[in-house]
Amino acid sequence: MRKPTLHDVAKAAGVSYATADRVLNARGGVAEKSVLRVRKAIEDLGYERDLHAANLSRKRHYHFRFILPNGDHSFFGALRAAVEAEKVQQRADRVMLSVVEVPALDADAQAEALEAEGLECDCIAIVATEAPRLSAAITALATRGIAVVTLVGDAAPEARAAYVGIDNVVAGRTAGRLLRMAHIARPGLVLPVVGTLSARDHRERLEGLQAVLAEEGHALAALPAISVHDRPDLMRARLTEALATHPQISGIYSIGGGNRGLLEVLSASPAPRPFVVMHELTPTARSGLERGLVDAVIDQKPAQEVALAIDVMKAIVAGRDWRDPAREITPTIYLKDNLPVTGSAGGPL
């Protein structure tokens, strides 16, 4: 069965092709009753716009911009590499991709990138840290007709067009369940380590952990989270202090980055070491698993996230509906025994 065309939409709506095209591309100048008929015909027929064909017929290029954290953080390096890998294929669809790098966990720098004069693009994806200024910048862009998609961690849900990433509360609950399984029939004390609680993904993972540890039927408790701003030096200093203050710590949940410092502390600590759960199969996390310093890694598949974000951005600029991508990505739990043959891209974390 052939796909419906815009001619079919125009015929079903009782309008000219030109009118249907004006409605589809939001160019105005069409009576409201005709707009409603065209939209109903699109819905009834299940019409989906072919972005490549539309771009080709208008000699139009779309420009999607990714605002990503810079530095040697492995996971964000993998995100940048995934965008680079998509560039050639997307260029064939007349979609141009570009990357702007800003400091990690810096909401002001992220907002400045969104507020930049002359910012011209059709859609933006950003790894965002929640802050009023950033929410205002996303709202201002939406007013200008530039949709913003949040990536990895959500922010400004009242203004952004979509969130692409894992369910971070579920990820935190998963970590909590793994820690409980490691403490069957014995009490324990878990130390959560976050980058910053202004990052929604870090905050939601902590909430998920705490919800599982609050359930009855076990004697596993959590200390207040320590914040290391994804920095190995802060991880090393603050984790060393926490272990000295609470020698009974039997579990560590590293919610963000800075994990080189964590491995350094664990490798120098006497046995038995705490049960450790962290995120993202970076070279550092892989090394931790292989060396027996880390027990489980929850990986959110950065290449899949970037590809899904591009699909959502295409749907937005084409005026098509899209499925909520928030639960499209199911994380993988890696143990020492099921590591893939090769490690993830990126530098140290």
Task: Explain how this protein is built.
The protein is an alpha/beta fold. 44% of the residues lie in helices and 16% in strands. The chain contains 13 helices and 12 strands. It has helices at 6-13, 17-24, 32-45, 51-58, 74-92, 107-115, 132-143, 168-182, 200-213, 232-245, 259-267, 283-290, 302-318; strands at 62-69, 95-102, 123-126, 147-151, 162-164, 188-194, 220-222, 226-227, 251-254, 275-279, 296-299, 332-334. The strands form 2 sheets. Strands 6, 7, 8, 9, 10, 11 and 12 form a 7-stranded mixed beta sheet that branches. Strand 9, helix 11 and strand 10 form a beta-alpha-beta unit. The longest helix has 19 residues, at 74-92. The chain is elongated, with a radius of gyration of 23 Å.
